[in-house]
């Protein structure tokens, strides 16, 4: 992917859904040094803790690109967002977006970018040279994060796992599969924009064979239990050919994201189905841990839930942003292939 010029102005617009600004939040967390501020309207109650700037103020402060770091159902551009993107272009900033609707398909934005000698970056463009997956065994260690739902922390966990593996003296690479991860890493495959027949092949290309005893940590997407996104999750499992999986879950989630009234799966049920599906291309796959997003809980309650979950499933359980990943690293790197590849709730 062509490098998107930094520094960035992060867009919140009129968002009221804290999960919906996950792309802007991800950049503010993992590339904060590249962010000069945030843009939000008066009726937006959310903040990333960055300086609130107008388009003109951000350009004067050195921002080179407005990142439309929000997500909505269907990934469309509302009228307000288009007007704000136009304002950014007129102020002298490039515009980047990870939405399904492409910037290049909005004539007013294309015209403004051309007039101002600026660029539009559509992050959700898959590579043109994808092939169908083969499922043939390939060398190397690969870990895939999976989830009980979408937006439960798979990207955060994946990035934390890379750092934890490196801290143990091994090579590790983050393989981004979503708009936020791609913006953070500067490369990747937007797997939810890939034609279904090519999903597994895209992941085989994203994480090819390696012989340095290092790890590819592949960012998961969606959930096998989400009716809207299970197809993407399945293709990821088969293309990743993971040696290990880590299950991610948000215990504060009341229902599947975007589907009120639909319950989340149990952790044991979710682990078993992911392992079962993964065995099509990786017969020896095993679960090595559970990661909880406990940001809505106090620390004592979060610690207690992690301990209880670890005991219930005989697997390390942690919040990687709060408590680190030492227990999961011990499990992942122990080379204990004798441990059963199934996990059941007690």
UniProtKB/TrEMBL annotation:
Membrane-spanning parts: none
Ranges of residues in domain D-glutamate N-acetyltransferase-like N-terminal: 54-126
Stored InterPro entries: DgcN-like, DgcN-like_C, DgcN-like_N, P-loop_NTPase
D-glutamate N-acetyltransferase-like C-terminal domain span: 132-329
Protein's name according to its UniProt entry: DUF1611 domain-containing protein
């Amino acid at each position: 992917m062509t490098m998107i010029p930094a520094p960035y102005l992060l867009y919140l617009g009129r968002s009221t859904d804290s999960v919906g600004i996950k792309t802007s939040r991800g950049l503010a967390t993992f590339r904060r040094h590249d962010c000069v501020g945030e843009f939000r309207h008066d009726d937006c109650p959310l903040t990333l803790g960055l300086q609130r700037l107008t388009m003109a103020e951000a350009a004067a402060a050195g921002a080179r690109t407005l990142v439309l770091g929000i997500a909505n159902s269907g990934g469309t551009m509302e009228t307000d967002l288009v007007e704000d993107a136009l304002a950014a272009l007129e102020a002298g900033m490039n515009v980047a977006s990870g939405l399904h609707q492409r910037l290049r398909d909005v004539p007013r934005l294309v015209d403004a970018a051309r007039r101002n000698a600026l660029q539009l970056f559509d992050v959700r463009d898959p590579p043109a040279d994808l092939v169908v997956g083969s499922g043939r065994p390939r060398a190397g260690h690969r870990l895939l994060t999976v989830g009980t739902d979408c937006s439960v922390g798979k990207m955060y966990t994946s990035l934390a796992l890379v750092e934890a593996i490196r801290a143990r003296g091994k090579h590790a690479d983050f393989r981004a599969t979503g708009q936020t991860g791609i913006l953070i890493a500067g490369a990747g495959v937007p797997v939810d924009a890939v034609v279904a027949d090519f999903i597994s092949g895209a992941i085989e290309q994203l994480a090819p064979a390696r012989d340095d005893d290092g790890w590819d940590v592949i960012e998961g997407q969606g959930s096998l239990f989400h009716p809207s996104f299970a197809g993407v999750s399945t293709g990821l499992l088969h293309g990743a050919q993971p040696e290990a999986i880590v299950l991610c879950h948000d215990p504060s989630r009341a229902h599947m994201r975007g589907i009120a009234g639909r319950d989340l799966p149990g952790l044991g049920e979710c682990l078993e189905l992911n392992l079962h599906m993964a065995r099509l291309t990786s017969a020896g796959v095993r679960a090595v841990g559970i990661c909880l997003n406990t940001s809505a809980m106090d620390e004592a309650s979060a610690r207690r839930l992690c301990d209880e979950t670890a005991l219930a499933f005989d697997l390390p359980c942690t919040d990687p942003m709060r408590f680190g990943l030492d227990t999961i690293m011990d499990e992942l790197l122990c080379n204990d292939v004798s441990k059963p590849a199934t996990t059941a709730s007690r």
